[in-house]
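Crash report, auto-generated. Payload:
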Amino acid sequence: MYRPQIKVVDCTIRDGGLANKSQFPLETVRAVYKAVCASGVDYVELGYRNSKEMFNPDEFGPWRFCDESVLKQATEGIDRGQTKLCVMMDAHKSSPDDLLPRSESVIDMVRVATYVKDIDKAIRLANTATEKGYECCVNIMAISHEGDQFLDEALAQLESETKALAVYVVDSFGALYSEVVDFYVKKYQGFLKTKEVGVHMHNNQQLAFANTIEGIIRGANYLDGTLFGLGRGAGNCPTELLLGFLKNPKFNIVPLLKVIPEYILPLQQTIDWGYHIPYMLTGILDKHPDVATAWITGPRKLDYTGFYDHVTDVP
Amino acid sequence: MYRPQIKVVDCTIRDGGLANKSQFPLETVRAVYKAVCASGVDYVELGYRNSKEMFNPDEFGPWRFCDESVLKQATEGIDRGQTKLCVMMDAHKSSPDDLLPRSESVIDMVRVATYVKDIDKAIRLANTATEKGYECCVNIMAISHEGDQFLDEALAQLESETKALAVYVVDSFGALYSEVVDFYVKKYQGFLKTKEVGVHMHNNQQLAFANTIEGIIRGANYLDGTLFGLGRGAGNCPTELLLGFLKNPKFNIVPLLKVIPEYILPLQQTIDWGYHIPYMLTGILDKHPDVATAWITGPRKLDYTGFYDHVTDVP
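Recovered output after restart:
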């Protein structure tokens, strides 16, 4: 038995791009796109459409900007099946002017990522996307650092002021336990009477997949994953685990089993994502993973007690 | 707030020994013992006391047998604090005669591992342990392959015929999802009116820690973990994650943060435990991990679609 409303979003290239400045070879992106489409996953996110005025194109790769020409190169000639294409736009690092009308674009959905403080920018961007013909979702980041009153107001605004299909619970720091996931999904449902709830979980405490299941049990219908959990720091909920769990017969795990060893595992040579004690500690302490990344890439990378002292001293 | 009844059992050396035929250097075992005792964990399990007639001592290391003299070498001179020492005995691979009276032993608790089919051997062994003065637990393995009627009868027998402190839900194949953990914990509680329920979870689907939390939420009070999840195949619930989650002030994670990089991570050079697609697939399919281990150590280790065909053809 399965829930037809459930939508899976594979954001391997977009989220993984946080770990390598979106510097994926075109061949890798095409292979991921092809495999995700063949697996029957509902959406594939190939990057950010962020502003070239806020990110230097000499430093960041093409998947940070997702020009239409680049997206066409990534997707042309590949059977997309029922899979839709999306990009993410950071509310505070992108421009509504960078969106063409949907009829002139290969993009189907725009996902707006925002902090609570930027919710009005996010709403403007979401409404621009809607007006230009795109589907739209909003991912609210870092909610574990937000006061309830501000988050509640943001949710009420998103419900009344946008046509977003879903609003996401994002566990930016990998800090949430199942009971906290329950709390947020229920809170979101209380405000979002005309929208779905989504979940985007991080794996600092090896809970990304479990928390995604917890979201499903509580009624979340938009689910993010990445291949082999690729992502910044400890990474994300592995898409292949999600497809192994979900019973919808349209999903097929086999194309994912093929692309993972060919294109994802080789990335381990340059991106050290996964379970590491420093990321575990920032998760437990509900802190940004950058402090752990800095430690791991420094001279005392295996001095975990030193990191513990360091991170518990950080206010 | 914490539940004082909760007992954590670190079984790094015992369970990890399944991945290296219990061939740990004495120095490693002493370091793990010292760190676990310093962390305030309730029990530390240093190996099996299995029969030398069923395991060849030339092939298996000393931690498969845990002779009293060996356990003394591993523990002498180390402040044990409140931490008790335990060994595991396989019901079908050990002899009750190998247990000294507790007054002559350094062991505090005997954990009996059994399949449902061997439950009468397990009960005899558990009762021998009780009569000789030891605390005792029973771990029922491979329950996801058991018919309910047989498991129910085994639980009823353990309740009425033994003085075991706890009986464990063991997810041998890493196949359980949270709702199945709920089902088993509730079933066990229905039979075990005078005993605690324990949980021992495997990490094939990155759910070992999450399922342990699920067990805690449902009332399980005996919790198994290993340092950095060391174990056969995908490994176990990491003890350090458990201590990060539990709020009992007697626990101290810092000694674990010290021993992991010094003694556990170096084992990665010879033991390849953790998240691998073949172990994920045996977890999803509720199959023994040995078929995955054989594949991973063979010439087609990264041919995951080949393994998928292989394992779905295995009856």
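Post-recovery validation: The longest strand of chain A covers residues 84-90.
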